[in-house]
Amino acid sequence: MSLDFLLTTLIIVASPGTGVLVTLAAGLSAGPRGAIAAAFGCTLGILPHLAAAITGLATLLHASPLAFQMLKAAGVAYLLWMAVRSLRADGPLAAVDGSSERSSGHIVVNAVALNLLNPKLPLFFVAFLPQFLDPASPQPIADMVRLSGVFMALTFAVFAVYGLCAARLRRQVLTRPGLVRWLQRLFAAGFLALGVKLAATSLR
C-alpha cells in the first residue's frame, strides 16, 4: 500500500460531498450517536459498490451510458428530495433524541441509500482503485478488497470526525431558532448543488 494511495484516498474522502452533509446534519440533530450512525451508514453503503466491482457490474455500469444515466437520475432525484426535506421541520436538522434506536436506524438507512444511489462510487472502483493494484499480483481480488477496506476505514474515521465536531455545536445551534433556519437553507442549498453537480457528471 503506497503513501500516494493513502493521501489520494484521504483527499477524496475529506472533500465536501453528500456523505459529509449527511454526517454533519446527523451530528447537529442527533448528537454523537447520530454522527457515528451516519458515518457507519455512509461506510456501509460502500459495500454494494465493492461487490459490484468484484463481480464486474461496475465495469458494465461504466461501459453502459443507459445504466449510468438511470442510476444518476435516481441519485439526482434523491438529492433534490433531501434538499426539499432540509427545509422542513422534520428534515435532517430536526432535533431528535440521539439515544433512540429508531432515530439511529433511520440515519443509517438514509446514509446507505445516498451511497447506493451515488454513481461515482462504482466508477471509483473501476477508474481509480485499479491504478494502485499490482498487475502481477496473483490475488488481485484480495488486493482490491484490502485497499477498499482502507478506503472504508478512512471514510468512517473522517466522517465520524466531521459528525462529532458538529455534535459538539448541537446545543448552541438548537437553542437558536434563527440559526437553525439558516442552516436548513444552507443544507438545502448544499444538497441542491450536489444534485446539479451529479446531473452534470458524465462517464468520460
From TrEMBL:
Listed GO CC annotations: plasma membrane
Bilayer-crossing regions: 6-28, 35-60, 66-84, 105-129, 149-170, 182-200
Keyword Membrane carried by entry: yes
Keyword tags: Cell membrane, Membrane, Transmembrane, Transmembrane helix
Compartment annotation: Cell membrane
Membrane topology of this protein: Multi-pass membrane protein
Main location (coarse class): membrane
GO molecular function: homoserine transmembrane transporter activity
Family the entry assigns: Belongs to the Rht family.
Name of the protein described by the UniProt record: LysE family transporter
Organism field: Pannonibacter tanglangensis
